[in-house]
Specification:
The chain is of the alpha+beta class. It has 2 domains: about 70 residues, no CATH class; about 200 residues, NADH Oxidase. The chain contains 11 helices and 9 strands. The strands form 2 sheets. A 7-stranded antiparallel beta sheet has the order 1-6-5-4-7-9-8, with helices on both faces. The chain has a two-stranded antiparallel sheet with strand order 2-3. The N and C termini lie far apart (about 70 Å). The protein binds flavin mononucleotide (FMN). Flavin mononucleotide binds next to β8. Flavin mononucleotide (FMN) binds next to β8.
């Protein structure tokens, strides 16, 4: 301390000088890193695969973050999607209390063989609630079971119901706010969903398959192209909730990333651009 006092008249002056030097170093490093060509830039002469390009072009840099402030972004779409003229199925209040979280985590496995017994509407209700149910509020903003970047909730869930007690076979949309299902179209779509899922048979055998789609502009209007990543990450959170809830209910489930995107989009009736399927989750009885 004695030596420092040779240079600085008092502690405050020493503090201010150290702060000024630190800030200058940080500013210099940020500026230098924003000007340095990235390892993946054209200057580096690397041919990028589509996946590498996606990852690279949605990576954050200070230059990008600052540039993004001035870049035009899409308009914010409505927070909730609804099928206003559809038949509505009110779901029972989720009230199930099962095994502990630790047991659920310990027991979780991807299960692809099901017994063929029906699942109940209460079980379906519990699964949907765990996936995206409303559990809180921040000011006026309802918050859900799974985390979401900026609480913007880009994910929609559709249920392809094959074998649910008391429910007609068909495709339903989960209306988060009312905890209910809206009928998109009735019919038995086992063959179609299996074909669209690259003939993975569990899709036809499952009692229900959840189709997770993303309305990208819900996150893109705030986070730009980075928003795409956030939508994919969020689907993973939701799927894990479904896995753990299924275990606790004594059901089997598996998440599915391999499918023909366009076929699923067509089946659900979404355009594949503003809203597109990103993940499936099949669930059945053991
Ligand atoms: C992103 C992702 C995509 C997946 N896609 C499929 C799939 O298309 N078909 C399938 O049978 N399992 C799929 N799975 C499940 C994995 O095969 C499974 O998690 C892995 O084999 C580990 O087994 P466990 O889940 O039982 O621990 C997927 C899992 C993840 C995380």
């Amino acid at each position: 301390m004695y030596h420092y006092h040779k240079f600085f008249k008092n502690d405050m002056q020493m503090y201010l000088n150290i702060r000024a030097v630190s800030l200058s170093i940080v500013a210099f490093v940020l500026l230098a890193s924003s000007l340095r060509p990235s390892a993946y830039s054209k200057e580096a002469g690397k041919e990028l695969s589509p996946g590498e390009r996606f990852h690279h072009e949605t990576s954050l840099t200070w230059r990008g973050v600052i540039g993004d402030i001035f870049r035009s972004k899409p308009k914010k779409p409505p927070q909730y999607k609804n099928y206003p003229d559809s038949k509505i199925i009110k779901l029972p209040k989720p009230a199930y209390h099962g095994i502990t979280l630790e047991e659920s985590i310990e027991k979780r496995r991807s299960v692809r063989n099901y017994s063929g017994k029906l699942i109940t509407l209460s079980q379906l209700s519990q699964l949907l609630f765990s996936a995206q149910g409303i559990t809180g509020k921040l000011y006026d903003q309802p918050l859900r079971t799974a985390p979401s970047a900026g609480a913007l909730y880009p994910i929609e869930i559709y249920v392809i119901a094959n074998d649910v007690e008391g429910m007609t076979c068909g495709i339903y949309h989960y209306a988060v706010l009312n905890h209910s299902l809206e009928l998109v179209k009735s019919g038995d779509f086992r063959k179609e969903i299996t074909a669209a899922g690259l003939e993975q048979e569990m899709l036809g055998d499952a009692d229900v398959t959840f189709v997770l789609s993303a309305i990208f502009d819900r996150v893109r209007h705030k986070y730009g192209e980075r928003g795409f990543r956030y939508a994919y990450i969020e689907a993973g959170h939701i799927s894990q909730n479904i896995y753990l809830q299924a275990v606790s209910l004594g059901l089997g489930s598996v998440s599915i990333g391999a499918f023909l995107d366009e076929e699923i989009n067509k089946l659900i009736g979404i355009d594949g651009q503003n809203e597109a399927v990103i993940y499936l989750h099949a669930i059945g009885t053991l």
